[in-house]
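pls design
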């Protein structure tokens, strides 16, 4: 309809690391199998940082809409 999209997180510059569900489950099972400590904190992540703006641009590109829509 020609409307622009609003991207949150410091003007879309905030970054996230996305992880596939199978990788997450594998990591959780790995920690479980190696004597986890009650109350311990485990950081599970990936090395594919991407900004909110970049994600929005990729999605819009998939639907043949330009980044000018952000």
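designed seq:
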């Amino acid at each position: 309809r020609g409307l622009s999209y609003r991207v949150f997180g410091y003007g879309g510059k905030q970054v996230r690391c996305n992880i596939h569900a199978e990788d997450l489950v594998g990591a959780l099972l790995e920690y479980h199998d190696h004597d986890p400590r009650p109350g311990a904190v485990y950081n599970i992540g990936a090395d594919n940082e991407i900004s909110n703006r970049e994600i929005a641009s990729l999605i819009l590109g998939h639907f043949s809409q330009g980044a000018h829509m952000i």
